[in-house]
Amino acid sequence: METQNLTPFDAVVLMSFGGPEKNEDVLPFLQNVTAGRGIPDDRLVEVGEHYYGFGGKSPINDQNRRLLDALRREFERRGITTPVLWGNRNWDPYLTDTVRDFAKRTGGSRFLAIDTSAYSCYSSCRQYREDFANTRNVLAQEGLAVSFEKVRQYYNHPGFAYAELDCVHRGLTNLIQKVGPLDPQKHRLLYVTHSIPLSMQQASERQTAGYREQHLQLIKWIDQELGEKQPLSAELVFCSRSGSPETPWLEPDINDRLEELAAAGTEGVVVVPLGFVSDHMEVKYDLDTEAAQTAKDLGLVYVRAATVGVDPVFVSGLVDAALERSAQYRGEPVDAPAVTPEGPLSPGSGSCSTTCCLGRQQKPTTPSWDSLADID
Ligand SMILES: CC1=C(CCC(=O)O)c2cc3nc(cc4[nH]c(cc5[nH]c(cc1n2)c(C)c5CCC(=O)O)c(CCC(=O)O)c4C)C(CCC(=O)O)=C3C
Ligand SMILES: [Fe+2]
């Protein structure tokens, strides 16, 4: 019997990046994101233009509203009565405001977070835990005691993995509709994720397979699952590089790779945004606008596979991951499934928390024992 029980948590909080809703939001949002992170001004102007091109509205908030709704419906379907809240790092509704409001309204103090990023690295894992510590510290000064736990990074959880598999399968079907039978000489599968600085990549490798390798493991699993149906070679490419040009980031960039492939005789690609759980601005601009234009200029057929979004298999997997974390927290034996050889990254075990993914400056994180004293 599955444990349909989130004890001792008072609420689940969907934790995300946040994005602007209108033109006037864009600058303050970018200032929030980049405070103290050394992003060159011309890059900020460029990224601002991406947002203005969409009327100043990032797609991410509406995606999160849909996910929030889907999670609530899945809780209801399973008879779980724990409330599901939503909070962001960089824009309204901010995590601190959501949590303060809930704590004052209900007296609840223990929060279990589900992040909208699936892999391990500073930006996608540890920085969220710094956010939890920040909220905890701000609210402590206001006399409210709150605590946070989070579910594991879920890139290899069957819910996310099978939902991705379905996205790839549908992308391939779409390409076949456009070009006829697939030909490994002419067609290719490009998995895309957010580039990160090499230093951040290296920090992610200290205790786990690391950011890049986690993607490669999932790609390998998808490839095996597709089996004979899928003759194309697959590779991982990157998008959304920022930072200063002298700092090395993960490569190749998708646009550069499309040029190389076209020159070598490729005629069509399926682009799978494996690193993004829904259609964020990176997907809408960097892939659907920029990379699609690159492909068009090169005469390539370009199919963009879907993101998992609110696929019921994904949503149900997230609820399973929350139940798993609760049971683990209570000290009960748990079944923690994973599709890749690395296995589940148990949060709080140290495998993806204590010393991994350190940022440039060391800041407090949650859980509270994960402090500077634990860093070797
Ligand atoms: C790994 C990763 C994820 C995936 C994990 C996760 O989801 O958390 C992610 C997500 C996102 N990143 C986003 C937006 C931005 N990221 C920036 C900057 C940066 N991202 C980085 C990495 C990542 N970012 C890094 C290493 C930087 C350099 C600065 C730094 O070291 O921190 C900048 C500043 C301008 C620029 O430099 O491009 C912006 C505006 C949005 C919102 C999009 C929307 O509106 O839909 C989302 C979901
Ligand atoms: Fe980012």
From TrEMBL:
UniProt xrefs under SUPFAM superfamilies: Chelatase
Keywords, comma-separated and alphabetical: Cytoplasm, Heme biosynthesis, Iron, Lyase, Metal-binding, Porphyrin biosynthesis
Sequence positions that bind Fe(2+): 194, 282
EC number: 4.99.1.9
Gene Ontology terms for molecular function: lyase activity
Domain of life: Bacteria
InterPro entries (alphabetical): Ferrochelatase, Ferrochelatase_C, Ferrochelatase_N
PANTHER family membership: FERROCHELATASE, FERROCHELATASE, MITOCHONDRIAL
Family to which this protein belongs: Belongs to the ferrochelatase family.
Name under which the protein is recorded: Coproporphyrin III ferrochelatase
Organism: Glutamicibacter protophormiae (Brevibacterium protophormiae)
Encoding gene per record: cpfC
